[in-house]
Amino acid sequence: VHNVGKDHPWRDPMTGLAGMPKIQLVNEYLATVPEDAIVLFMDGYDTFFADSPLEVLKRYYEMSADIVFGAERDCWPLSEYDQSMQGQWPDYGDVYRFLNSGLYIGKAKALHSFIATNPDHTADKDDQLYCQLRYLEWRKTNGQGKATYTVKLDREAYIFQNYEPKIKVVNGQL
Fold first, then answer.
1. Residue 140 and which of 29, 52, 114, 131 are 20 to 30 A apart at CA?
2. Other beta carbons less than 10 A from residue 28's beta carbon
């Protein structure tokens, strides 16, 4: 475990649109690890593993993607920022349809490429909005073969779970 925020003064109020220091710290950390390293990021207060760390890694490999983000039922902050953006998200009938930047796992090189490119300067203050806009941009360009990595959302909470009031522990699992 590497706490990327340790010893860094936190100057972000985390109210409304916020959280970009997380992206900046992760980006700095990614530059220090081998490109093929598997890196898992999780917020510290509202994120959960669906199982043991080894099972998380196994499930990540099963998803056959370079990057896997957690997903949630609300399109926050896009729903507050621009309601028309909700229509850009595919609806597969899953409860968790929208990217949540509080949990993700992936290859260091792919993650670095994903978070180092700013698709829209309106996202400068919010890590989740930044990642959502980046993901939507990736979806548009991936069909044209421009992306060198793959991205999926954990729409079934197979790897990890963001905060959800209805979640219960059954047989030792969320």
1. 29
2. 11
131-140 pLDDT, tens per residue?
998 898 888 8
- Taking the C-alpha atoms of residue 168 and residue 156, their distance in angstroms, rounded to an integer, is 15
**Six-digit token string for 74:** 């609300």
Assign 147 a pLDDT band (cuts: 50, 70, 90).
confident
Across 78-87, 120-129, 155-164, which has the greatest mean pLDDT? 155-164
Packed helices 20-30 and 108-116: angle between N→C axes, nearest 10 degrees: 140
Q: Compute how many other C-beta atoms are within 10 angstroms of the C-beta atom of residue 53.
A: 10
Which residues in 54-88 are b (16+ Cβ under 10 Å) and which e?
eebeebbeebebbbbbbbbeebebbeebeeebeee
- Which pLDDT belongs to residue 92? 87
What pLDDT shows up at residue 111? 95
Which of 115, 152, 120, 143 minimizes the C-alpha distance to 133? 120
Helices (H), the chain: 20-30, 53-62, 78-81, 108-116, 127-142
Residue 3 has pLDDT above 90, yes or no: no
